[in-house]
User: Which sequence fits this backbone?
């Protein structure tokens, strides 16, 4: 059977679901209400940002939240609110988006890049333990691909060593760890509303926390150093304008009502894909132990055969089933190292960068009927791996 990249017929010609999806009726009505009100900014007296923040914090099992312009700023604000800054080290996993590290730099601290678990690719508690120094002030676990990190072990380590824990939950809306929602498991949790995420307003983010004093400091960081209830032109602390708009909040608030159904849809695709892939030299990267709700931002696949991965990605796209290469290890990024980032040896992250590919959320939203297309395209491309290795 001729590969599509060589002129053959593609496995799939139907389009994948659009992402972001079109506004539903509830979103359209609330966005119109906000637009008609003229109360678009977060400080003009509208209520939608506050309603979103309260609802999202409640979903995370905590009392407090602060809506922000994006999750990178949210991580920065959480770190600043927890007193992390110059002279401090913050441990981050090697297999994650670069913003997990650059937010630490933005706060004035030093990222320390450590390895991930070779099986599930989440931050390794053993690697955290081995990298601790007198300067370590915080650990930043990432709930990668929509499944939770090993929060009990990380929390125990943090408690014993007096470390703050900031959860990077950018990809994990609705995920649960041992029946507890992510985001509310550490000292602060940060979610993203960037355009690829499970809930999106194009951009945006939200910080959640359980402690009132931490909330007050994070709020001040995001509101130009003001204090809640204080004078408008009083700025007792250093802060920035990091706020979300009412229009963005109007897109996001109704989304909470359908989030669980969309998670179910993605999980159904992933379950079907696992069955369809049986017998192929491809395995699904497992969720970490303790995962009781995987929100499935991504389906990560590990290639277990010798194949030119770049060719595979091109060939899969030609077959109508595009895959993603995933993250390069943070410890190999010169830009981070030039800024003083400390990188520990990370063989598991380096191996993931060579052998793991992603099925993105847009494809997962097609549901179980589309899973055979993934398996058929992979089988077709892998059958031609000799020609791909020669290409």
Assistant:
């Amino acid at each position: 059977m001729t590969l599509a990249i060589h002129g053959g017929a593609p496995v799939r010609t139907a389009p994948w679901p659009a992402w972001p999806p079109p506004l539903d009726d509830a979103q359209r009505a609330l966005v119109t209400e906000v637009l008609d009100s003229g109360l678009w900014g977060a400080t003009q007296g509208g209520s939608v940002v506050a309603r979103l923040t309260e609802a999202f914090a409640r979903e995370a099992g905590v009392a407090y939240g602060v809506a922000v312009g994006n999750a990178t700023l949210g991580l920065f604000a959480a770190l600043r609110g927890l007193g992390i800054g110059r002279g401090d080290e913050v441990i981050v996993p090697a297999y994650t988006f670069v913003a997990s590290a650059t937010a630490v730099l933005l706060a004035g601290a030093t990222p320390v890049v450590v390895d991930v678990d070779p099986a599930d690719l989440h931050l390794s508690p053993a690697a955290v333990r081995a990298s601790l120094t007198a300067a370590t002030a915080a650990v930043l676990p990432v709930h990668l691909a929509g499944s939770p990190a090993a929060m009990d072990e990380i929390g125990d380590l943090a408690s014993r060593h007096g470390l703050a824990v900031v959860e990077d939950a950018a990809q994990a809306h609705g995920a649960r760890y041992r029946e507890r929602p992510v985001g509310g498991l550490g000292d602060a949790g940060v979610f993203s509303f960037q355009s690829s995420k499970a809930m999106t307003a194009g951009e945006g983010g939200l910080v959640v926390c359980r402690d009132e004093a931490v909330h007050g400091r994070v709020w001040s960081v995001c509101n130009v150093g003001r204090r809640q209830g204080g004078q408008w032109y009083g700025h007792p602390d250093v802060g920035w304008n990091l706020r979300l708009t009412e229009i963005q909040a109007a897109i996001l608030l109704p989304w909470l009502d359908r989030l669980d159904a969309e998670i179910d849809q993605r999980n159904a695709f992933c379950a079907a894909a696992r069955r369809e892939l049986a017998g192929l030299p491809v395995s699904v990267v497992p969720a970490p132990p303790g995962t009781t709700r995987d929100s499935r931002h991504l389906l990560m696949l590990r290639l277990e055969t010798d194949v030119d991965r770049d060719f595979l990605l091109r060939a899969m796209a030609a077959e109508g089933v595009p895959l993603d290469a995933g993250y390069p290890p943070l410890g190999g990024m010169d830009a981070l190292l030039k800024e003083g980032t400390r990188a520990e040896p990370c063989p598991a992250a380096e191996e993931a960068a060579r052998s793991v590919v992603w099925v993105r959320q847009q494809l997962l939203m097609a549901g179980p009927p589309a899973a055979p297309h993934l398996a058929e395209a992979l089988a077709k491309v892998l059958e031609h791996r000799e020609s791909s290795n020669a290409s």
The radius of gyration is 22 Å. The longest helix spans residues 259-276. The chain has two domains: 25-257, 259-390.
